[in-house]
Amino acid sequence: MPVDPHSHVPIYEQIVEHIHGRITAGVFRPDEPLPSIRALAIELLVNPNTVQRAYQELERQGVAYTQKGLGVFVAANGAISARSMSEASVCERFEQGIDLARAAGLGDPTIRRLFDRSLHEVRETSSRHSTNGPSLPGEEASS
Amino acid sequence: MPVDPHSHVPIYEQIVEHIHGRITAGVFRPDEPLPSIRALAIELLVNPNTVQRAYQELERQGVAYTQKGLGVFVAANGAISARSMSEASVCERFEQGIDLARAAGLGDPTIRRLFDRSLHEVRETSSRHSTNGPSLPGEEASS
Amino acid sequence: MPVDPHSHVPIYEQIVEHIHGRITAGVFRPDEPLPSIRALAIELLVNPNTVQRAYQELERQGVAYTQKGLGVFVAANGAISARSMSEASVCERFEQGIDLARAAGLGDPTIRRLFDRSLHEVRETSSRHSTNGPSLPGEEASS
Amino acid sequence: MPVDPHSHVPIYEQIVEHIHGRITAGVFRPDEPLPSIRALAIELLVNPNTVQRAYQELERQGVAYTQKGLGVFVAANGAISARSMSEASVCERFEQGIDLARAAGLGDPTIRRLFDRSLHEVRETSSRHSTNGPSLPGEEASS
DNA sequence: GTGGTCTAGACCACA
DNA sequence: GTGGTCTAGACCACG
């Protein structure tokens, strides 16, 4: 369930982040095709239009390009863009949390404690898309 | 800018989190009044209706109660509720970020690095509404 | 009939160009609201979704900005952007025509003759949206 | 790049216009064969199906005819038809541009200025398929 | 009332 | 089969 229809963040944007992640994880590689709009729509149990909007956004970002009648492909520098955008998404969440914590008067030690707790909790719940193993290309040991 | 109109999280929910924070930080104390709807609306540059909806939500949560004609007050146990809800909000953001990072195949060291970067970046940008000093009652020394 | 459903250029893009033109012509001015999505949809006899897509594109271009619950407004520098984009659209058409003409082996004198003919023909048919009179602000005597 | 996959005008139609131009320019002459579907598909970096559709359209227009097993040939009066259609295509673009300009409140002097700019810009970029010199049969001295 | 998102289902151009 | 566009109609957040 990589998309949550009850989240406040729009589904199409969740899909964009999802694809960013898959590219960053090396699942989708430059000049290889992304799943077809219809196929991904079925996989994610959403409407094709929603996937299309996500793909359109990816194209606008320069992460993907479209070949009429053939499909949507990862751009040559798509992996780089996707990685930086993935990190941006992650940091955005972190910063939101930190802002909230600071506004509540929490100090750095407390914030770190909350973060560590989250890190461990997610580890257990993390039987999600376990695409991440120790032997995937292009991750771990990054900037 | 305690409220971001471009965020995907509804404004009234941002206001709720904002109040949680102020209560947790000891700015608003049990049985003391919250700012009037009108005043807060002006302070946050938001429509009064939106503030009202937030106050309704706070009342539903048991964090505040209304005295007709007098205003909205922090509930007796409001500080405790607010604190746990603030932490929950913070952790929610952290977990979202961690989920995203894991989905992108990033490992714990990388994730920690991103978190540290966020922690320092926010520190600099953090010339926000620092109504709260480091030594207010009820913070530092979390559960 | 500012939009032609039979054109090859998508309706939403026609709407974008249409708005560019209206802004350039001074009909819509900075910080004033554009017609509501629903209203323009009715006026143009298209689906509100189509108008919305156009407005979204205008926002992406920096020509307009959205205020939730209030409407879509012309951006401060929207007039400038719109003007340059209008001119770009015009020149794009001209260049396409010139390309075609050159590819057909036509020389500049012939091309000019065709252009003049078009200029005069359009003048007669031009009982379209005659928003343009001799006394409108901001046009005639441009770069 | 005689064919632009990003254009809104369908590729097969671009090919039709392209052939019109080649015929008008005297590159393809009446009762002589057009390039084979396969060859043109390769030259234009396009799918053979698309070329075939263009050839069908040319046949429908009376500009070309098919001899089974031999190929597609320029019709006897193909040069005349092609020329008028080429000019029509050119003028269509010009009129579109003029319409846009008028809708934006631009006056004839401004429009002419934009046209002249386009005429000069295209001249420089015009290191295209200059298979045609200035002195080919059937051009210069238009109707 | 405003805009923003989503769904369902249709038609077209292209491979 | 692919993506691109459009419609009709729904629900939500906001004013």
Précis, in short:
Chain A is mostly helical. Chain A has five helices and two strands, in the order H-H-H-E-E-H-H. The first copy, chain A, has one domain (about 10-130): Winged helix-like DNA-binding domain superfamily/Winged helix DNA-binding domain (Arc Repressor Mutant, subunit A, Orthogonal Bundle), CATH 1.10.10.10.
The number of strands of chain A is 2
CATH topology label of chain A: Arc Repressor Mutant, subunit A
* Structural class by sheet pairing and helices of chain A: mainly alpha
Please tell me the total number of domains of chain A.
1
**Radius of gyration of chain A, rounded?**
17 Å
Query: In the CATH hierarchy, what is the superfamily of chain A?
Result: Winged helix-like DNA-binding domain superfamily/Winged helix DNA-binding domain
How would you name the oligomeric state of the polypeptide chains in this document?
homotetramer
